[in-house]
Amino acid sequence: MTPCALPPHSVFPSVPIPPTLRLVRSFPMKLLLLPLVGLQLLLSLAAAAPATRPNILFIFSDDHAQHAISAYGSKVNQTPHLDRLARGGARFNHAFVTNSICTPSRAVVLTGKYSHANGTPVFNVFDGAQPTVAKLLQAAGYHTGMIGKWHLGSDPTGFDRWIILPGQGVYHDPDFLTPHGRVNLAGHVTPLTTQLGIEFLDTRPRDKPFFLMLHQKAPHRAWEPDAKNKALFKDRVIPEPSTLWDDYATRPAALPENRQTVARDLTRRDLKLEPPADLAPGPARQQWLGAKPMELTVTSADGTARTLTGPELVKWKYQRYMQDYLACVQGVDDGVGEVLDYLDRTGLAQNTIVIYSSDNGWYLGDLGMYDKRFMYEPGLHIPLLARGPGIKAGAVTDLFALNADFAPTFLEFAGVKIPAEMHGRSLVPILRGEKPAGWRTSAYYRYYHDPGHHNTRAHYGVRTATHKLIHYWKKDAWELFDLVRDPTEQKNLAADPAHAATLTELKAEIVRLQRELGDTGQFADVIPKDGVDAPKNVPRLGLKTVQEAVAAMRP
């Protein structure tokens, strides 16, 4: 085994020198008289010890609401394996996405830069020629891998091995793209992605630390869980959020015209309604599945049929949506458990940083909605859990984290210099239990995709520990919320004279942050064209096993 080149131990002082290395270093001279075979044994133990630089495993899900994790106090589900990760490490109560849709969020994670700086504000193709955290870690000697949902339009760069879903991918019997072509795997995408990740770890080179981005598709719409978890939630009654019936009073600028409501916008496909038997596959069937029912006849377990309308139908829709969404979340949690078990079983846990997050926040009927996009609390917050060497176990922090912080964090863990142009800051000091001087007390957000898929109006804003200010710039409409007195953001205070000083202060903070980040409104008026759908004319390599698929990952 050839040892990898290591930086000085002081680069990451919280990681202890492995016991076997300490043992060899501290031997008294008389032990040099041991038989040669004994010395060879000790040297082999030292060579087998984990490198000082930790492995980094980043598990990323799609649209996982922070409040659908029991470690965060979920009222709707239990996630024992994510809770296990939280107990063994650190939990951020206030981790925020900077642009809450899939493609832009992933570009921010890779580059450590806001959307206006990395050039991916909407669903446009990501420029893979620019610097990324994967390239920097690869250049520093890490074995880099990308598995699962990519959704950036271009091929992954900076990865020694990669296998990605085309576009959004599908839940059942999915295709994956590799450097050599398209492979098909039989089964459900969530356990398959987990198995691909474990196979990657099993087949990694042993003389390098690894950096693996393991990205799940779930629980993204259309919420198609595996059979086990679908059965688990089939008859579950999910508590309704207090704002399910939100009428958007005091917030007329954008919310009333949104098209992501539980009441009006869930389709027959979303609700898993079965098309008529005589409706053959084709445009007419797709039109039927895409319709949004406002009256529905359902059959109870005892065979009784009843027609639902109004609030009764909304309640039924909420239950169907949440049962499938939470069943998908459960599959992700199962996968986290499998990966943690593998790390424990192989001894890799001792020298592996494990970080879990999601690309966006999500509305669980909050404000009457599903989906993400809006800067209100459920869409802005993302889960962020981390454990590993040097991370304080059981730590909980209210300090603000951004998804732009992920890349600098990975780099500091690896002892790699953080580029000055990255907007994010390393979270490593916080993960060690420290409170860094001058840490941010406000967070900037900007969303561009207007009207997008759900008639969402473009907006930017700032959040502090106590308040939030949102500006729908195309409408010149402001929303101000007191998050202490009004955590569900029901009362817009922007026109209230009693809060004029706070409004002025937060407007000034937005200007300051925009100047600091270099946001001059680069995409405020014109946004790039969408371009991240599945590529065409990719060679088809047929049905493969997980092992065969991983073998095709290397360029």
Could you describe the 3D structure shown?
The chain has helices at residues 19-25, 36-48, 80-87, 102-111, 115-118, 133-139, 189-202, 227-233, 283-290, 310-346, 377-380, 406-414, 428-431, 500-517, 546-551, and strands spanning 55-61, 90-92, 95-96, 143-149, 161-165, 175-178, 181-184, 210-215, 296-299, 305-308, 352-358, 381-382, 384-387, 395-397, 401-402, 442-447, 459-464, 467-472, 477-482, 540-543. By secondary structure, the protein is an alpha/beta fold. The protein folds into four domains: 1-17 and 52-247 and 321-362 and 380-441 and 528-555, Alkaline Phosphatase, subunit A, CATH 3.40.720; 18-48, no CATH class; 248-317, no CATH class; 459-523, Arylsulfatase, C-terminal domain (2-Layer Sandwich), CATH 3.30.1120.10. The strands form five sheets. The chain has an eight-stranded mixed beta sheet with strand order 5-4-8-1-11-13-2-14, sandwiched between helices. Strands 16-17-18-19 form a four-stranded antiparallel beta sheet, with helices on one face. The two termini are 24 Å apart.
Task: Give the topology.
Blueprint: H1 19-25, H2 36-48, E1 55-61, H3 80-87, E2 90-92, E3 95-96, H4 102-111, H5 115-118, H6 133-139, E4 143-149, E5 161-165, E6 175-178, E7 181-184, H7 189-202, E8 210-215, H8 227-233, H9 283-290, E9 296-299, E10 305-308, H10 310-346, E11 352-358, H11 377-380, E12 381-382, E13 384-387, E14 395-397, E15 401-402, H12 406-414, H13 428-431, E16 442-447, E17 459-464, E18 467-472, E19 477-482, H14 500-517, E20 540-543, H15 546-551
Parallel strand pairs: 1-8, 1-11, 2-14, 3-15, 4-5, 4-8, 7-20
Antiparallel strand pairs: 2-13, 3-12, 6-7, 9-10, 11-13, 16-17, 17-18, 18-19
